[in-house]
TrEMBL record, chains A, B:
In the N-terminal section; belongs to the acetate CoA ligase alpha subunit family. Pfam families: ATP-grasp_5, CoA_binding_2, Succ_CoA_lig. Keywords: ATP-binding, Ligase, Nucleotide-binding. This is Acetyl-CoA synthetase alpha and beta chains. GO terms for molecular function: ATP binding; ligase activity.
Length: 707, 707
C-alpha cells in the first residue's frame, strides 16, 4: 500500500514529466499534450520525446527516453498501441516509477488488445514501475495546474477529487462535478485501480469530498473496507453506471469492466456509507452542496419565499425526499407576522413578498432569513428569490444579504432556489463566498439537502461496524454434508440444507426422507401430526410449482390421501422427473412467511437476501440485500426496507412475528455463507415467523466445488 | 363559452388598456405597471388612472375611469384591496369587458378577504364584465410585447402558452418553461378559471404546446373534457403542485385551492392525455422538446458519442425511461466500423472518438449522425459531444453539422448531451435554428424523448373514447335498495351490495341472511356446500379483522362448529358489536383475489379502483384508478398497471384469471357509480377471478343522501 501511495504521489505531484509521443503539429485541433502542459501554468520540468528530435514550440525534443537528462517522476505515453510496450520498457529501464498510458485499443478493444495489455502488465512486474491506463485521459492536479491531458481543462479548482473510468469527468469537471482538485481516470485499470485511488483521496488532507464514476470494480470487498473507513472522514459520492442491461453490455466493451448486478452494488454502497448519485446533474449539485455546507443536523426545513406557488412546489419536493416542514416557534411566527400585512397569516413556507413590497425587500429578506435560521426548530432554510432582471441596480438582488446571513449560521445550510433570465448572474454573486449553493429547482435543493442531512446524521458518526461471530458452531458436520454432495458441476440439494441451518443455530423443521408411504406413515408418527409432505426429485427445484407439496396433514388417513394425490400431480405436471421419495416434516401452519437467501457476487462475495414470502417477494421485487458480514442493526434494517416489516410488526391486527429472531437468522446465514464458499446459492422458503420465533420450513441450496 | 373566448381575447390582444392605480414613483424598485408597459414595446393605447391626475413619464394621467376618453378592452387594477370593489364598479359602469385584478388579500387571505372576493364576483354578475384574479400577475402576450405585470419580463417568445396559479411562471418563463408566447395567471380564479384559459389555448392556432401550473381545480370533469380533446391537437404539460400533505396545506392558503387527492389527479391526467411534469426543470425541457421536435414514432434510440463512459450512462438513462437501444442494421454497422480503427468493434452506442481523431471530427460526426438517423431501426438519436473549450475556432464544434443533419431528418429527433465549461455557448449555437435541444444530462434527454414518444405514439392519435353504456340494466331495484338504506348520515351496508352488483351484471355470490344456526343450516342446504359464513353487524366493517369470516365449510357438521367458533371470536374481538346474524354464501375457494372499488372525488366525481386482493393492495399501495366513465381499453390498462396483472396472466404456472371478465366488472362498476351518486364508496373484496370468469364474493358500500 505504501508503494501505491507514493506512486500516486508521482502521478499527482510530479516535479518532472517525460512525454512520450509528442506531435510536431501544434495549435487548435492537434490535441498536443506537450503544448497543453506548457500553457497550463504547470511549474515542473517537461521533457518531450520523439524519435525525430529537433524542437517543438522552441523546446528541445529528446530522441528517446534514455536521452532525457533526468529520471522524471512521471511518464505519459501517447503513441500507437503497437509501440506502447517498447515505451513502457524504456521507462522501466530508465527507472521512471509512474507511467500513464493514454493510448486506446487494449482491453477496451479486441483480443489482440487484451493480449497487449497483459504484456504491459508483465513488463512492469517486479520493476517498481506502476501503470495508470491504458485508455485514460490520465491524471490531474488542478491545485498545481497539472494535467496529463491532450485537452485544455477548465481551471475551476475545488477541494474535491474524482476517480473515474472516463476522461470526460476530468475534462468537463466544471459541468459534471462542479469543479475538482485532484482527478485520476483509471481507464482500463491494468495496474493502479479504483481502490488504490480511492484510498489516496481518502487520506489526502486537501480533499474534502470524493467523487467516483464507476463502471465496474475489481476487488469489491477491498472497496468496501476502504470506503467504509473513508466515509467517516469525508463524503463519498458514486455515479455507478452500467446499471441497465444495455449499459452493462456497453461497459464491458468500454473498459473491460464487469458492471455486476446493480442491487449488489446498491447494498455495498449502503453498507459502507457511499452516497449513490442518480446522474451527472445530481453529482454536480451534491459535490457543490458538500463543499459549501459543513453540517446539517436534522431534516426540518424552513422556507422563505417571494412566491406562494413556489413555496408549495418546495413543500412537495421536501416531502419527496423525506425532509420535514419545520414547525416555527411562536417567536418566529410573531416576527414573520408582525412584518406582514394584517390580512396575512404567515407560516412555513413564509411568503415575504407582501412584506417586502411594503417595507423594502432587502430588510425583510434579511430579517426573515435570520429569524428562520435562528429558530431552534429549523435545521436548514430554502430561500426562494427571483432573478427576473440583471442583478446590477436590481432592488430584488438580495445576494449580499443571503451570503451574510449564511455566514452567521454555518451549521445550518441556507440553500437558494432562484428563477428568471438572470439566474446565472445571480448564481455567481450568491456563490462568490462558497457558503451558499444556488439550485435550479426545489427538487434539486431538497434532494441535495436530504443527502447532506443523511451524511451528517447517519453516515459520518456511525459506529465502526460490530460484526458478531456467532459462537458454538461446529462447522465440521456442515463441511462433511457439503463435501458429501459436491460433484463436478453445480448440485442442488434440499433436505440436508435444513440440517446445515440447524448446525448454524437457525431453527429448522424436523425433516426426514421416506422412500414410500409406509415409511412416511412411520416417520409422521415419530415427528407428530400435523405434518407436511414434499416430493424429492433431483429434477424438481420448485416443488410447489408441480404440486409437490402437501401441507397441514392432520392424521394417518389424510396422509394416505395426500401422498397418493401428490404423486399423481407430480406425475402429470413433471412427467420426466424421477421421484426418489418424499420428505415428511413437522408442520407449522401459522405465522408470517418470509424468504431468506444467499447468493454470491464475483466481486463482493456472499450476499444475504431477505424478502416477503410466497410469490410476493418476486412479484413486487420487494427484497433487501446485504453483503456478509453485516451487523445486527443492518439485519434489522433489511426488514425495514421491505413491506414484510409491516407484516412482522402485526398488520391490521394480526399477530406479527419476532423480528429479532429473523435478524438472528440473517446473521447466522451470513456466517454460513462466509465459512462455506461452496454454497453458491441457498434459499429458505419459507421461514415461518411467529411472535415466539422463526422456523425454516423448507430450504434448498446449490453447491459447487471451489475453482 | 363564446363570451369567455372573446373576453380572453380582450385580455390577450387588447388594443387599449386602462391601468387603475398608477404610482407616481417610477424607476427601478417601484414596480410601476404603467412604466413597464410603456417600455415593453406594446403598440396599443394605454390610459393611466390616478385620482391625483397630472402627468407621469410625460403622459396624461386620468383622474377616474370615467374620464378616460375611450372604453378600453382591458382594465388592470393594482390598488389596495379595500378600493378594488369601487374600481371594478367603475369598469362595469364604463363598459370595460375584461378586468385583471393584481391586488392580493382576497380568498388567498383572511375571512374579510374571502367576503370581499365574493362582493367582486357579485359586482360583475350579469354585466358582461369578466375578471382575472385577484392575486394575479395578470396576462401576457409576448407575440405582441404585451403584459400586465409590474415586473419587466424577459422576451423569450416561443409558440407555447401557460396557464398558471402563480406569477413566477410568467415573470420567469425563460427559466421555468424555456420561454412562452401567451400566459395567464388565474390567481384566485374568482371568475375566469383554469378551464376557460385551457380551452382558449387549445384553440389558439399559434400555440403549439400548452403548459399548466395547477394547484387545484374547480370543475374537474370539464377539465377532463377540454384536455381530452385538446391533447389530440397539441401536447399538454402539467406541473401539479400541492401533491404532498404539506404542499396541499400551503396551496389552500395560497390561492384558496383544494389540492385534492394526488392519485385522482394522476388518473385524470392519464385518461385525458395530459403529460405530468415532475418539476420545473422537467417542464423546461419538455416544453423545449415538444417545440423543437415535430415527431417521434418509436422508442429505439441510437447513440453517437465521443466518450464510451458517457454512452454507458446514456444507455442506463434510456432504460430508466423505457426507451430501447436500437439494433443498427448491417449497413449502418459497416459504415461505423469502416470509419473506425481496426481494433474497434463499433455498435450502439457508437463511440466515434477514435475515428474522429484520425479522420477529422466534423466529417466523422456528420457521417455517423446521418447514418444512424437514416437507419430504419432508429427512431431518435442522442449525440454526445464535448464543450470543453470555447466554440470559436474549436475543431470539436460540430454545432453546424448537428443542425444540418437534424434538418435532414425532421421526423427523428436529434437530441444532444454536451458537457464542459463552454456548454452554454455551444447550446446557443446548437439551438439557434430551433430543431435541436441540448440537455444537461442523459437522464434529461432520455426522459424528454420518452415523453415525446409517448405523446406521438399513444396520446396524439388515440381514438376518441368509446364509452360503453351497458344495456339491459334495470336500475329501479337498485335505486329502491339504496333509498331503503339511506339515513341522515352515511350508512354502511354489506349484503345488499351483492344484489346491487348483480343488478348491474356483476356476478356475485348468492348470499342470504340467517338469524341463527338453524336458519343458516337451512340456507346452506338450499345454496349447496361448500359455503362461507360471515358475521352481520353494523358495528363491524372489516369482518375478517375480528374473525367474522369462515370459509370453505364443507358440510353440516363443519357449519355447526364454524358458526359457534366465529361467534366466539367476534365476541372476544369486538365485544361491543351487536351481532344481527350471519350471511350464508356460496363459496368459491379457487382463483386470483382482486379488489374493486368506487370512491368519489369532490371535483372529478366517481373514481373506480382496482388492486390486488388480500392485504397486498394496501401493503404495496399497488392500486390503479380511473375516473368513470372510461373505456374497455382503459379498464384493461388498469389491470396492467398493477402486479395483479401477472397473477391474472397465470404466475409461475398457476391458472390465472379472466381479464375480460374483470374489465367488464370495472366498466359496470363505473356505470353503477355514475347512475347512483348516493353511493359514496363501495368495495368488492374479494372479486374471485378464475379462467372462466369473475365473482364478487363480498362487498360493502357507504351510502349517503345527496346534498
Amino acid at each position: 500500500m505504501e508503494s501505491t501511495i507514493s506512486a500516486l504521489k508521482g502521478y499527482l505531484e510530479p516535479q518532472s514529466v517525460t512525454i512520450i509521443g509528442v506531435s510536431t503539429r501544434t495549435g487548435a485541433g492537434t490535441f498536443n499534450v506537450f503544448e497543453v502542459m506548457l500553457n497550463s501554468g504547470y511549474k515542473g520540468r517537461i521533457f518531450p520525446v520523439n524519435p525525430k528530435g529537433g524542437e517543438i514550440l522552441g523546446k528541445k525534443v529528446y530522441r528517446s527516453v534514455a536521452e532525457v537528462p533526468e529520471v522524471s517522476d512521471l511518464a505519459i505515453i501517447s503513441i500507437p498501441r503497437t509501440a506502447v510496450l517498447g515505451a513502457v520498457k524504456d521507462c522501466t529501464a530508465k527507472g521512471i516509477k509512474s507511467v500513464a498510458i493514454i493510448t486506446q485499443g487494449f482491453a477496451d478493444a479486441d483480443e489482440t488488445g487484451r493480449a497487449m495489455q497483459q504484456e504491459l502488465m508483465e513488463a512492469v512486474k517486479g520493476t517498481g514501475t506502476r501503470l495508470v491506463g491504458p485508455n485514460t485521459l490520465g491524471v490531474a492536479n488542478l491545485h498545481n495546474n497539472f494535467y496529463s491531458s491532450f485537452l485544455d481543462f477548465n481551471k475551476s479548482t475545488t477541494d474535491s477529487a474524482i476517480v473515474c473510468q472516463s476522461g470526460i469527468f476530468l475534462a468537463a469537471s466544471l459541468d459534471l462535478t462542479a469543479g475538482m482538485g485532484l482527478g485520476i481516470d483509471i481507464g482500463n485499470a491494468s495496474d493502479i485501480g479504483f481502490n488504490d485511488v480511492l484510498e489516496y483521496f481518502a487520506l489526502d488532507e486537501k480533499t474534502r469530498v470524493v467523487n467516483m464514476h464507476m463502471e465496474g470494480i475489481h476487488g469489491g470487498r477491498r472497496f468496501m473496507a476502504i470506503a467504509s473507513e473513508a466515509s467517516r472522514r469525508k463524503p463519498l459520492l458514486c455515479f455507478k453506471t452500467g446499471r441497465s442491461e444495455a449499459g452493462a453490455r456497453a461497459a464491458g466493451s468500454h473498459s473491460g469492466s464487469l458492471a455486476g448486478e446493480d442491487h449488489v452494488f446498491g447494498a455495498a454502497f449502503r453498507q459502507c456509507g457511499v452516497i449513490r448519485v442518480r446522474d451527472v446533474e445530481d453529482m454536480h449539485y451534491l459535490n457543490k452542496t458538500f463543499l459549501a455546507y459543513p453540517n446539517m443536523s436534522g431534516r426540518r426545513i424552513g422556507v422563505v419565499t417571494i412566491s406562494g406557488g413556489a413555496g408549495i412546489a418546495t413543500m412537495d419536493a421536501c416531502a419527496d425526499h423525506g425532509l420535514e416542514v419545520a414547525d416555527f416557534t411562536g417567536d418566529t411566527l410573531k416576527i414573520l407576522n408582525d412584518m406582514s400585512p394584517d390580512w396575512m397569516d404567515v407560516n412555513n413556507p413564509a411568503d415575504i413578498w407582501p412584506a417586502g413590497m411594503s417595507r423594502g425587500y432587502l430588510n425583510i429578506a434579511k430579517l426573515s432569513l435570520d429569524t428562520v435560521l435562528s429558530d431552534p426548530n429549523v435545521d436548514a432554510c430554502i430561500c426562494i428569490t427571483p432573478a427576473y432582471q440583471d442583478p446590477e441596480n436590481n432592488p430584488l438582488d438580495i445576494s449580499e444579504v443571503i451570503r451574510e446571513v449564511a455566514g452567521k449560521h454555518p451549521g445550518k445550510p441556507l440553500a437558494v432556489w432562484i428563477f428568471g433570465p438572470s439566474r446565472e448572474k445571480f448564481r455567481l454573486r450568491l456563490e462568490s463566498e462558497g457558503n451558499v449553493v444556488v439550485y435550479p429547482s426545489p427538487d434539486r435543493a431538497a434532494r441535495s439537502l436530504a443527502m447532506l442531512c443523511r451524511y451528517h446524521t447517519e453516515i459520518k458518526n456511525r459506529p465502526a461496524p460490530g460484526y458478531e461471530t456467532l459462537g458454538e458452531i461446529n462447522t465440521a458436520p456442515v463441511s462433511e454434508l457439503i463435501t458429501g454432495h459436491l460433484a463436478d458441476g453445480p448440485v442442488t440439494v434440499n433436505e440436508p440444507v435444513l440440517d446445515m441451518l440447524g448446525a448454524y443455530g437457525i431453527p429448522a423443521v424436523v425433516s426426514r426422507r421416506a422412500a414410500n408411504l409406509e415409511e412416511a406413515l412411520a416417520l409422521a408418527g415419530d415427528i407428530g401430526y400435523p405434518v407436511a409432505l414434499k416430493i424429492i426429485s433431483r429434477q424438481i427445484s420448485h416443488k410447489s410449482d408441480v404440486g409437490g407439496v402437501s401441507l397441514n396433514i392432520r392424521d394417518e388417513a389424510a396422509l394416505q390421501t395426500a401422498y397418493r394425490q401428490m404423486l399423481q400431480r407430480v406425475k402429470s405436471n413433471a412427467p420426466g422427473a424421477a421421484v426418489e421419495g418424499v420428505l415428511v416434516q413437522s408442520f407449522r401452519p401459522e405465522g408470517v412467511e418470509v424468504i431468506l437467501g444467499i447468493k454470491r457476487d464475483p466481486e463482493f462475495g456472499p450476499v444475504v437476501i431477505f424478502g416477503l414470502g410466497g410469490i410476493y417477494a418476486e412479484l413486487f421485487r420487494d427484497v433487501a440485500f446485504r453483503i456478509a458480514p453485516f451487523t445486527r442493526e443492518e439485519a434489522l434494517a433489511m426488514l425495514r426496507e421491505t413491506k414484510a416489516y409491516k407484516l412482522l410488526a402485526g398488520y391490521r391486527g394480526a399477530a406479527g412475528g419476532n423480528m429479532d429472531a429473523v435478524a438472528d437468522c440473517l446473521l447466522r446465514l451470513g456466517q454460513l455463507a462466509l465459512e462455506h464458499p461452496e454454497i453458491k446459492e441457498l434459499d429458505i422458503n419459507p421461514l415461518m415467523v411467529t411472535p415466539g420465533g422463526a422456523l425454516a420450513v423448507d430450504a434448498r441450496a446449490v453447491l459447487e466445488k471451489l475453482k
